[in-house]
Amino acid sequence: MTNIVWLKRDLRTQDHEPFKLASDGLNNIFPVYIFDPEIIKKKDFSNRHFQFIYNSILDINETLKKFNIIVTIFYGSTIEVFQYLNRKLKINKVFSYNETNNLIHLKKNNEIKIYLKKYNIPWELSSKNGVVSNIVNRKNWDKKWYTYANDSLIENKFRKQKNLVIENPFTIPDHICKKLQNYPKEFQLSGETKAWEVLNDFVNKRSQKYSKNISSPLYSRYSCSRISTYLAWGNVSIRQVFKFVKNNDKYNTNKRNLNSFLIRLKWNSHFVQKFHVEPRYQNECINRGYENLERTNKIDHLNAWKNASTGFPFIDACMKSLMKTGWLNFRMRAMLVSFLCHHLDTDWRLGANFLARQFLDYEPGIHYTQFQMQAGTTGINTLRIYNPVKQSQDQDPEGLFIKEWLPELRDLNKDQIHEPWIENNNEQNLFFKNNTLYCKPIINHIESGRLARKKNWSFKKNLSVKKENKRMVLMHTRNN
Fold first, then answer.
1. Can you tell me the distance from the alpha carbon of 166 to that of 346, in angstroms, rounded to the nearest whole number?
2. Is 378 helix (H, G, I), strand (E, B) or coil?
3. Do 467 and 397 fall within a single domain?
4. For residues 388 and 411, is the Cβ–Cβ distance under 8 A?
5. Are both 333 and 248 inside the same structural domain?
6. What range does the domain containing 61 cover?
7. How far is Cα 254 from Cα 232, in angstroms, rounded to an integer?
8. 184-226 per-position pLDDT tens digit
9. Are strands 91-97 and 72-75 parallel, antiparallel or unpaired?
10. CA–CA separation, 256 vs 242, rounded Å?
11. Based on the domain organization, do 269 and 305 belong to the same domain?
12. N or C: which end of the chain has fewer CB within 10 A?
């Protein structure tokens, strides 16, 4: 009999309860990861996610090979993989984390639940990162989260077992394998080993200017923790990161910056908890009243946003940077969503999956909840309509970030680069006359901002929105 450890967004070997529970006994453990085509073909999944997951698994296998344990990768229908595993291994128990998944994952999990119940195979689910199942409100949620964060780490001790190898009829197709082997150098390297290198470097070096540079698209790439991708795919747990920071020698001499970072770990779980309770965040306005808010949804505007050709240098530079590297700081992510939904008057659903595919640190529980918050469809959060020019002037005053990603604008000075369409001198007039590499703005951002504020603030008074506000406050607002 064999214990199956079903890995998902928990690609690590330590502080891992399913590995711990599966190893407590005489049964061999057989960890698996399943790339289900129905899942990876969804519009929120991209090849960069596939690559990061795949290489994270290789890192785990390098750690566990001395125990004759490897994570076996299957490419196929989840239910068919489990049927095959049960025939070949006679499953004793299944262990996994109770993941906060999007809708397709929930469907797959339900299929497995029914199958395992049919064959009397127990499935033990562990809570993850302080997220609680089956809650109706947030009473005492913060206290519970801190209890989780301060609890002892799980020390996973693996014993050497008999080499357990089975024929795998669910192998990754060759054409996909070729893509997996070409991991772009611009992306963060994946895996548990790399996660600890990045975290250690942040706490001991890069965190000194964390708060100062957190909103700068140029300097945040160095000063921010860059741990979000490793948290998203579970290369480290939130508790591991929390305790590592609090127990580090640098903590007492850098409390302001590191405490600012630590509070964001709790925010991570807070937003994932929202999604865990209401996974319809993925495709419905969480405040149902906003389903009645009409948008113009101009497809040419949407495509310009996706293609980094809006004519607003800061918007386009942020989008190009994200598409190339898979990462962008929080303020710039919020600005991209705000510009799409407010200035371009576009339904958030038309851009959510596109950005999900770009983010290497895509976590559904954070992505969709944050997307709707910035889109203004929660009804209970402050409406944020970012002025793209002011953000450019504030966060990239010298235009260094813009010039890095839009080299066609490198000859403009800092007074011209934020609004190159303004023909206020002969030099700039000549630039636009001769330049065919960059476009003029697709909208008047002053007018579109004014219309968006009028439209969205007035809609907040809608009776259906107010009714939903009461429900959301009861369900999602933290009550210490």
1. 50
2. coil
3. yes
4. no
5. no
6. 2-151+170-174
7. 26
8. 999 999 999 999 999 999 999 999 999 999 999 999 999 999 9
9. unpaired
10. 15
11. no
12. C
